[in-house]
Design brief:
This protein has 305 residues and is α/β, with parallel strands linked by helices. The chain is 39% helix and 17% strand. The longest helix is centred in the C-terminal third of the chain and has 20 residues. The two termini are 24 Å apart. The structure holds alpha-D-ribofuranose (RIB) and calcium ion (CA).
Length: 305
């Protein structure tokens, strides 16, 4: 069974991905979660991750990831995810505590379990890049990397850059050129997996659970902020990585060479596919089977507390 470290920045779609990871735990083993800065500052994403871990009875350690990008100034997405990073749900007092530094945890776990651990990154790639640079044994010890990030269909921060890459372009370039097997879920595919009123109605009609309340409260806020800022319903960006782990047939892929624009001013943080390059460093998702995705979501929802 594939063992994963899940690095995230909750964040509304990160929260759905964590819930699906809990509900689909028959398909892979979630070893730990690392909360990085991204949608909000690390203090807030860590609080959100601990609250979600408690609400979901996740029963895995939650570690603290990076607080800032490698080089550029930190940017967050409070306009979309709110002041606390997961606006909408109100959580009870959290009994869980941070298990420690996520970088040292990931280095130790990956290097001491060669070929076993997959690193899933759905926030800025800073934690992964730091690990790749900190110890040359890390890259060859990884089973593979799965990322949500990048876009060749237009950006969601600038007109060409997607947030997770834009937040730390240098980290993304390090990851894409690490030589590790990489599966990429960029906006090209995640924007195909959109929340809708029909899905929300189906959730409302589902059995009453604590997570159902959390989901509906968070999506109520997320729908409003997405309609205001991106003029559409929210996409299930990060949950695509979890759906893939549970059922890879949901997606279709191409092999390509992904590079990050670090030099441009206007296109800083954009990802570019060098399709004629012989250095095919990435398996890039380009198509999603929407029905299969949502069937998997509701299968997970059934199992949540
Ligand atoms: O561009 C979408 C990505 O940025 C998602 O991971 C979302 O959570 C934000 O981090
Ligand atoms: Ca995210």
């Amino acid at each position: 069974m594939e063992r994963i470290i899940f690095d995230c920045d909750p964040g509304h779609d990160d929260a759905v991905a964590l819930a699906m990871a809990k509900g689909l735990s028959e398909y892979f083993k979630l070893e730990a979660v690392i909360a990085t800065y991204g949608n909000q500052i690390r203090e807030k994403t860590l609080t959100n991750t601990l609250n979600l871990a408690q609400a979901l009875n996740l029963d895995v350690p939650v570690y603290a990831g990076s607080v800032a990008p490698l080089i550029r100034e930190r940017v967050v997405a409070g306009n979309i995810h709110g002041e606390n990073g997961l606006a909408g749900p109100v959580f009870p007092e959290c009994r869980l505590k941070c298990a420690g530094n996520g970088i040292t945890y990931a280095l130790d776990t990956v290097i001491n379990n060669p070929g076993e651990i997959t690193f899933v990154s759905v926030g800025p790639f800073t934690d992964l890049a730091v690990c790749l640079k900190a110890d040359p044994r890390f890259a060859p010890s990884l089973k593979r990397i799965i990322v949500m990030g990048g876009s060749t269909c237009g950006g969601n921060v600038t007109s060409t850059a997607e947030f997770n890459v834009y937040a730390d372009p240098e980290a993304a370039q390090i990851v894409f050129n690490s030589g590790v097997e990489i599966v990429q879920f960029g906006l090209d595919v995640t924007l195909q997996v959109m929340l809708s009123e029909e899905i929300l109605e189906k959730v409302r009609a589902s059995k009453e659970t604590n997570y159902k309340s959390i989901f509906l409260a968070s999506m109520e806020y997320y729908v409003k902020s997405c309609k205001e800022f991106i003029h559409d319903y929210p996409a299930m960006h990060d949950p695509c990585t979890i759906a893939y782990l549970a059922d890879p047939t949901i997606f279709k892929f191409i092999e390509t060479d992904v590079e990050v624009d670090l030099k441009s001013t206007l296109h800083y943080g954009a990802t570019v596919d060098l399709r004629e390059s012989i250095n095919k460093n990435v398996k890039k998702a380009i198509k999603a089977d929407i029905k299969k995705f949502w069937d998997l979501f509701f299968k997970a929802l059934e199992k949540l507390p």
